[in-house]
Amino acid sequence: MKPLRVAIQGVLGSNHHKVASEYFSREIELVECLSFHGMVDTLMEGRADKAVMAIENSIAGSIIPNYALVCENGLHIIGEHYLNVHHNLMALPGQQLSDLREVRSHPMALLQCREYLKTLPQVKLVEDVDTAETARNIRQNGLEGIAAIAPEIAAELYDLDILAREIQTIKNNATRFIVLKTINKELPRAEINKASVRFLTDHKRGSLATVLNVMSDCNLNLTKIQSLPVIETPWKYSFFVDVTFEAYDSFEKAKALLQIMTEDFRVLGEYKNARQ
């Protein structure tokens, strides 16, 4: 059996790499991509079978552009995975905190470590495309005076010293990742107990509340709601909603009603709840 080709945002040693390794039970071949757009293109063009994408973090909140990427490209969410994130400050062997001029990492990592970074007033914070790629670049180019914020495995892979461990502001720091595919059929109905949908409502007062009441009446539990502007129509918003349910029939009933009540209703994915 050929290895499953999995596209990730980032490189070997990144959190996306860790999630891919934990989620898939079979041998995988990583397809490294340095942006979420590039990762989606890789999946759409058939250069990967599936993809792993970060969608929200318990500290920094939703990665809003990724919702649009999933919807606009007609991708399907076939699973999810939660990862406890551990950020570490690392640099070339022999470097000390006092030697640092810059700290580089993905913007989300910098945001999640902002309280610790305040203790290093001498350093400039520089946003980069990926945590592990930053670590790899420091090793490959022998960059002294520069540190990366990355997972511990990146220090091991790229032979860097960890100068400070667990520097995230909130120690219970988790990121939710979604697993994507170009088609939705993945699980039998009996195993599906979570879904992601997207819809638009009109401008009438109480429209959204009415939709949410229908979900409740159908025994759906709302776990996430995220609004996103509709670019073509100023001041109109689409809503991305995650729901859980005990019986697929409950979701099927809700789908039939929401297709009538809302505009441009889409099911983005039907999958298994990872937090049962």
**Count of alpha and pi helical runs:** 9
What count of domains describes the coordinates? 3
Indicate the CATH architecture of the largest domain.
3-Layer(aba) Sandwich
Which series of helices and strands comes N to C? Answer: EHEHEEHEEEHHEHEHEEEHEEHE
Instruction: Provide the structure class.
Output: alpha/beta
| Beta-strand percent range | 25-35%
Span between N and C termini? 31 Å
Large-scale geometry: elongated
CATH fold assignment of the largest domain: D-Maltodextrin-Binding Protein, domain 2
Tell me the helix content. Answer: 25-40%
**Quantity of strands, as a count:** 15
| Average pLDDT metric | 94
* Largest sheet composition: 6 strands, mixed
Low-confidence region ranges: none
At the fourth CATH level, what is the homologous superfamily of the largest domain? Periplasmic binding protein-like II
Radius of gyration: 21 Å
